[in-house]
């Protein structure tokens, strides 16, 4: 086989097949070239276009492979393959119709794009990449809790879940009220969906208000009560003397939705039914009669199925062609930015309540989708540590990976079942919310947009182990940390690539983004990045000049240090003797050197 020009294979990556093919480019038309398939990627390079058109698609980003046309199909380029990707693009390839020319490439692509469906390993287990940094050491639960000032006289660390016996989707180390015994935890576990009891995610150092997360209570249609659960929530409230514990239920409320003038009766039924459906299946919410020292607030964030359909509509209007003539109405009809607004607005309410000294409990149905969005965004607003490069990694490891967001089910790593109803872009939506915050507070985050795009690319790629499996128990069973590489190994080996040059550390600043449709934008450089006709947002001249000035400053500092060293040598001792005693040393000046922006 010919070498993969312009494409270096990763350590552990092996070439499987290459084939002459026609890429039906939605922007440039039919392009003849060669496609290479490895156990990690699909790579295409055109033969006759100038400049050459290339595609480099991780197989993990492929969600669906279908045959296009048949042996008797008529029309040019009507026989080939249709590939639907998870990263907002679709690919179409045409082949010659004679001799079942697509059978071999279809079989190989289907096999390696969906390895788990064929008894094969994900590429992360085959990769031989080595990095200077070990990304698996980024998050150490006890270190993170100590950073927050835990444990203390109100909150204790428990290892009751060390063997995943209390809750198989929770991490092994949990923080719970000091007065709650292990037996209390077991009793509460029976009344919370999936055994996901309320546990501490974050504590405010000054006012000691806490963010706790959990799943819905199992009250059912009959309105069952559980005295242990009611007392446990009261212990959370009492820990910092909160008058009334606020429980944020991420789901749409029955009453609020019923009172809205809905445009569609079907949509009305779908939204109103969510909490009632939960009740019918044993779930529900905390009623006023049972939880008298708590107030319940519904945040009206819709479920995974609504979000999946919303992103699908967004893809329809941005790929392959942007709907120019009715762009604003088309974008509005997807409801994507409306959902982003609701998630950010909910997180603002959580952060504001904590800043006011009131503890909160956050849940949705099972506590691993909308709950993770709300707790992590609120913590990002409240705690500047999570706005640093390494702090953001800790936040993702803790609130998403550790607390069991179902990455395997939501993304479908290596699984051919593209129509699975568990698929949903919940994590993509969260990263979009983070991007919206970075746009509103351009100096508050140490990381740049490139980090966010890299995270989403490798959410799908299966190159790293970071986002594989649904929970820590599954990762332990599959020896993830010893057999795969962490995404943070890549990121932390070249931190400057992901740094925001405008970053200004502010330790006690709480960020309150504006959750208004007028202030939210479509993330063009992610959702429409595959369209060459949409001018990619280049680095701004101001940012470029700022980076140049920083480089110039570093150069001058280096020269100054060299002069200091030369001045301290024996040959220059007479110079130092002649200096005035009160003169400021070069080192003193260095501490004040900075480039203001």
UniProtKB/TrEMBL annotation:
Enzyme category, top tier: hydrolase
Annotated ranges, domain Myotubularin phosphatase: 135-527
Record family assignment: Belongs to the protein-tyrosine phosphatase family. Non-receptor class myotubularin subfamily.
Gene Ontology CC terms: filopodium; late endosome; plasma membrane; ruffle; sarcomere
Biological process terms in GO annotation: mitochondrion distribution; muscle cell cellular homeostasis; negative regulation of autophagosome assembly; phosphatidylinositol dephosphorylation
Assigned EC number: 3.1.3.95
Chain intervals for the UniProt region annotation (Disordered): 567-597
Record GO terms (molecular function): phosphatidylinositol-3,5-bisphosphate 3-phosphatase activity; phosphatidylinositol-3-phosphate phosphatase activity; phosphoprotein phosphatase activity
Residues involved in substrate binding: 303-304, 364-370
Tyrosine specific protein phosphatases domain boundaries: 334-380
Membrane topology (UniProt): Peripheral membrane protein
Keyword terms, alphabetized: Cell membrane, Cell projection, Cytoplasm, Endosome, Hydrolase, Lipid metabolism, Membrane, Protein phosphatase
Alphabetized Gene3D superfamilies for the sequence: Pleckstrin-homology domain (PH domain)/Phosphotyrosine-binding domain (PTB)
Biased composition (Low complexity): 567-579
Active-site residues, Swiss-Prot/TrEMBL: 364 (phosphocysteine intermediate)
Catalytic activity field: a 1,2-diacyl-sn-glycero-3-phospho-(1D-myo-inositol-3,5-bisphosphate) + H2O = a 1,2-diacyl-sn-glycero-3-phospho-(1D-myo-inositol-5-phosphate) + phosphate; 1,2-dioctanoyl-sn-glycero-3-phospho-(1-D-myo-inositol-3-phosphate) + H2O = 1,2-dioctanoyl-sn-glycero-3-phospho-(1D-myo-inositol) + phosphate; 1,2-dihexadecanoyl-sn-glycero-3-phospho-(1D-myo-inositol-3,5-bisphosphate) + H2O = 1,2-dihexadecanoyl-sn-glycero-3-phospho-(1D-myo-inositol-5-phosphate) + phosphate; a 1,2-diacyl-sn-glycero-3-phospho-(1D-myo-inositol-3-phosphate) + H2O = a 1,2-diacyl-sn-glycero-3-phospho-(1D-myo-inositol) + phosphate
Entry protein name: Myotubularin
Record localization: Cell membrane; Cell projection, Filopodium; Cell projection, Ruffle; Cytoplasm, Myofibril, Sarcomere
Amino acid composition bias (Polar residues), ranges on this chain: 580-590
Lineage of source species: Eukaryota, Metazoa, Chordata, Craniata, Vertebrata
SMART domains listed in its UniProt record: GRAM (SM00568), PTPc_motif (SM00404)
Top-level taxon: Eukaryota
Gene this protein is translated from: MTM1
């Amino acid at each position: 086989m010919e070498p993969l020009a312009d494409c270096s294979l990763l350590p552990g990556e092996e070439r499987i097949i290459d084939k002459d093919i026609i890429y039906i480019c939605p922007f440039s038309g039919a392009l003849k070239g060669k496609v290479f398939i490895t156990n990690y990627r699909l790579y295409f390079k055109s033969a006759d276009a100038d400049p050459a058109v290339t595609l480099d698609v991780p197989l993990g980003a492929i969600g669906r492979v279908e045959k296009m046309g048949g042996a008797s199909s008529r029309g040019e380029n009507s026989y080939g393959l249709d590939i639907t990707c998870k990263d907002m693009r679709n690919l179409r390839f045409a082949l010659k119709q004679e001799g079942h020319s697509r059978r071999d490439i279809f079989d190989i692509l289907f096999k390696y794009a969906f390895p788990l469906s064929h008894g094969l390993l994900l590429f992360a287990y085959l990769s031989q990449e080595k990095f200077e940094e070990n990304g698996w050491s980024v998050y150490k639960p006890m270190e993170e809790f100590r950073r927050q000032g835990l444990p203390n006289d109100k909150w204790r660390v428990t290892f009751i879940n060390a063997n995943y016996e209390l809750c198989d989707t929770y991490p092994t180390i949990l923080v719970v009220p000091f007065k709650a015994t292990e037996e209390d935890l077991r009793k509460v576990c029976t009344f919370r969906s999936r055994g996901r009891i309320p546990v501490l995610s974050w504590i405010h150092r000054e006012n000691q208000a806490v963010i706790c997360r959990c799943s819905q209570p199992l009250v059912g249609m009959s309105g069952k009560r559980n005295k242990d659960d009611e007392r446990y929530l009261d212990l959370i409230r009492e820990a910092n003397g909160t008058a009334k514990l606020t429980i944020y239920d991420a789901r749409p409320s029955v009453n609020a939705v019923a009172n809205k003038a809905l445009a569609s009766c079907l949509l009305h039924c779908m939204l109103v039914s969510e909490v009632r459906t939960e009740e019918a299946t044993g779930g529900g919410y905390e009623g006023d009669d049972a939880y008298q020292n708590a107030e319940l607030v519904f945040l009206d964030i819709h479920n995974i199925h609504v979000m999946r359909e919303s992103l699908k509509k967004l893809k329809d209007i941005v790929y392959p062609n942007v709907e120019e003539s009715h762009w604003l109405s088309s974008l509005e009809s997807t409801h994507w930015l409306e959902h982003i607004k609701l998630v950010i607005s909910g997180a603002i309410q959580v952060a504001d309540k904590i800043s006011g000294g009131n503890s909160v409990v956050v849940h949705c149905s099972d506590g691993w989708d909308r709950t993770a969005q709300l707790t992590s965004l609120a913590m990002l607003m409240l705690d500047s540590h999570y706005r640093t490069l390494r702090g953001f990694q800790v936040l993702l490891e803790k609130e998403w990976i550790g607390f069991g967001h179902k990455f395997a089910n939501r993304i479908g790593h290596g699984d051919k079942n593209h129509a699975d109803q568990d698929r949903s872009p919940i994590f993509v939506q969260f990263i979009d919310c983070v991007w919206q915050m970075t746009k509103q507070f351009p100096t508050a985050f140490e990381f740049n947009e490139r980090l966010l795009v890299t995270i989403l690319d490798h959410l799908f790629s299966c190159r790293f182990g970071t986002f594989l499996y649904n929970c820590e128990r599954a990762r332990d069973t599959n020896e993830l940390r010893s057999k795969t590489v962490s995404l943070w190994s890549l990121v932390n080996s070249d931190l400057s690539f992901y740094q925001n040059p405008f970053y200004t550390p502010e330790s006690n600043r709480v960020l309150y983004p504006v959750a208004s449709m007028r202030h939210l934008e479509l993330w063009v450089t992610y959702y429409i990045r595959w369209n060459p006709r949409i001018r990619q947002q280049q680095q701004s001249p101001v940012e470029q000049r700022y980076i140049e000035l920083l480089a110039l400053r570093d150069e001058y500092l280096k020269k100054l240090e060299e002069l200091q060293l030369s001045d301290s040598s024996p040959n220059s001792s007479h110079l130092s003797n002649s200096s005035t005693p009160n003169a400021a040393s070069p080192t003193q000046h260095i501490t004040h050197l900075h480039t203001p922006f």
